UniProtKB/TrEMBL annotation:
<dbReference type="InterPro" id="IPR036259">
    <property type="entry name" value="MFS_trans_sf"/>
</dbReference>
<feature type="domain" description="Major facilitator superfamily (MFS) profile">
    <location>
        <begin position="38"/>
        <end position="465"/>
    </location>
</feature>
<dbReference type="InterPro" id="IPR011701">
    <property type="entry name" value="MFS"/>
</dbReference>
<dbReference type="GO" id="GO:0016020">
    <property type="term" value="C:membrane"/>
</dbReference>
<feature type="transmembrane region" description="Helical">
    <location>
        <begin position="81"/>
        <end position="100"/>
    </location>
</feature>
<feature type="transmembrane region" description="Helical">
    <location>
        <begin position="197"/>
        <end position="217"/>
    </location>
</feature>
<keyword id="KW-0813">Transport</keyword>
<dbReference type="InterPro" id="IPR020846">
    <property type="entry name" value="MFS_dom"/>
</dbReference>
<dbReference type="InterPro" id="IPR050930">
    <property type="entry name" value="MFS_Vesicular_Transporter"/>
</dbReference>
<keyword id="KW-1133">Transmembrane helix</keyword>
<dbReference type="GO" id="GO:0022857">
    <property type="term" value="F:transmembrane transporter activity"/>
</dbReference>
<feature type="transmembrane region" description="Helical">
    <location>
        <begin position="440"/>
        <end position="460"/>
    </location>
</feature>
<feature type="transmembrane region" description="Helical">
    <location>
        <begin position="139"/>
        <end position="157"/>
    </location>
</feature>
<feature type="transmembrane region" description="Helical">
    <location>
        <begin position="363"/>
        <end position="386"/>
    </location>
</feature>
<keyword id="KW-0812">Transmembrane</keyword>
<feature type="transmembrane region" description="Helical">
    <location>
        <begin position="407"/>
        <end position="428"/>
    </location>
</feature>
<keyword id="KW-0472">Membrane</keyword>
Length: 475
């Protein structure tokens, strides 16, 4: 499978290059402006952001005790504050970043500015000699990370054709999840075997590679791209279904998008997915230690079971979406996740066939791996659905979101939704576990996914893209 720029983008790029003498083109212009290099740059940026977020987790205790000399009674509170600061900043800064990014002619400047903030923030965190410096460094990292998610996905949306969007977005998410896994693992290993400053040299190396890629990248001159005439995609389907709706010219982006049932369903899917995932951080370690007697190393493998299948299955889930649409995979896998969450809650409980002495342990492990496997088919569809919806509105009324489109604001909504879920997940999960127990907490999440299945059935696109005629460029 190959990804292609839209014909209009290719035509404009070719015209621009023909008009400029070959000697005045930038060095390596062809490969630097290719879709593969642009996507690789975004993938590296997303990997670097998630890598840095997780890299601090195993080091933070060492920093607070030995470098900042924080009292043991304050360690837990300060640890939670440092980690939660990232999500809280994203909720506040994402709409602002999206608004101003959509005012720019291109995305490269915003990507470079965010990288500068990230480098300064990382140096402040690594060399922090006081708690305020550490918190300020995390503030800079959080703002920069939010910008990377927003502008990075907007760049992908403006580079890839709609009929390949699912695979591209899923591949980006797999790269981001790889950073989530490798960051804490590598930091813990290096801190034990080498030393503090050698450990911090790895993030700086990652940022250096990220800097080189972002400087070399040359954006496509077309923004926002349009769907080729005659191409029967989900966007075209949406346009036909919206013909009778009056879309206000230069209307409020937030009002138009947040009054759309499809958009609200996608945002709820993102909030629910991150809420359930992060609730495990507050509840899973204590539960498996109490019920099964598993050590922290085994707990770490359970968390890997939640993430690693998604890294491997993510591109497959995107390919499936490109072939049959988003509705059926989302509905089916939401129901399957609901079943697995119900079984996970039963494992280790007082139910005879699922107790810790019978089938509780293998049942719990199988449920965790199954949830990680099915999750990309649900949470991964939100970026694609939102992109399709926004492009349909822009094609119906091109000036609705302004001359530069609304992709950055679109993905700022996703960033806010994910960050909000990260904030409330541990709180709700921990509260439910304390009030009603782990079993009923899991069954509550199971009911939530059944609700998501119903909403996906009602609002998500059901077009079978397999019927879409493929041009030679898309083969």
């Amino acid at each position: 499978m190959a990804w292609t720029l839209s014909p209009s983008s290719n035509h404009l790029l070719a015209n621009n290059m023909n008009e400029v003498p070959e000697t005045s083109l930038p060095i390596g212009c062809h490969w630097r402006s290719s879709k593969w290099f642009i996507l690789s740059t975004v993938a590296i940026a997303l990997f670097a952001e998630t890598f840095l977020y997780g890299f601090l987790v195993p080091i933070l205790g060492e920093m607070l005790h030995n470098r900042l000399h924080v009292q043991p009674s304050q360690t837990q509170e300060l640890t939670s504050a440092v980690l939660a600061l990232h999500g809280a900043l994203a909720v506040v800064s994402a709409p602002v970043i999206g608004h101003f990014a959509d005012k720019q002619r291109g995305y490269k400047t915003t990507l470079l500015l965010s990288l500068g903030w990230c480098i300064v923030g990382t140096c402040m965190v690594a060399g922090a000699s006081s708690v305020p410096v550490l918190l300020l460094g995390r503030v800079l990292q959080g703002i920069a990370g939010s910008a990377v998610w927003i502008v990075g996905f907007a760049t992908v949306a403006d580079t890839i054709r709609p009929d390949h969007m699912g695979f591209a977005m899923s591949l980006m998410m797999s790269c981001a999840n790889t950073g989530t896994i490798s960051g804490p693992a590598l930091a813990g290993l290096l801190l034990e075997t080498t030393g503090y400053w050698i450990t911090w040299s790895i993030p700086l190396l990652v940022l250096t590679i990220d800097f080189i890629a972002r400087v070399c990248m040359i954006e496509s001159p077309s923004r926002p791209p349009s769907t080729p005439h005659g191409s029967l995609t989900e966007t075209a389907s949406l346009l036909s279904s919206c013909e009778e709706q009056e879309i206000p010219r230069n209307g409020s982006f937030w009002r138009i998008m947040l009054c759309d049932g499809r958009v609200l369903t996608c945002l709820l899917i993102i909030i629910s997915g991150t809420t359930v995932s992060t609730s495990f951080h507050a509840t899973l370690p204590l539960y498996v230690e109490e019920k099964f007697g598993w050590s922290p190393s085994t707990t770490g493998l359970l968390f890997a079971g939640l993430v690693v299948p998604g890294v491997l299955i993510g591109p497959v889930a995107g390919w499936v979406r490109d072939r049959i649409g988003t509705q059926r995979p989302a509905v089916i896998c939401s129901i399957l996740q609901a079943i697995m969450l119900g079984l996970m809650g039963a494992a280790g409980s007082d139910i005879p066939w699922a107790s810790a002495q019978t089938m509780g342990k293998p049942l719990y492990i199988a449920s965790i791996v199954a949830i990680g496997t099915f999750r990309p088919f649900v949470s991964g569809i939100a970026p694609v659905e939102l992109t399709t919806t926004a492009k349909a509105i822009q094609e119906k009324s091109p000036e609705t979101f302004g001359p530069e489109g609304g992709m950055s604001r679109l993905f700022s909504m996703l960033d806010v939704a994910a960050s909000f879920g990260m904030m409330i997940g541990p709180i709700i999960g921990g509260s439910l576990k304390e009030m009603v127990g782990y079993k009923y907490m899991s069954w509550t999440w199971s009911l939530l996914y059944l609700l998501l299945a119903a909403l996906a059935m009602c609002f998500l696109g059901s077009d079978d893209t397999q019927e879409t005629p493929c041009s030679e460029e898309g083969v």
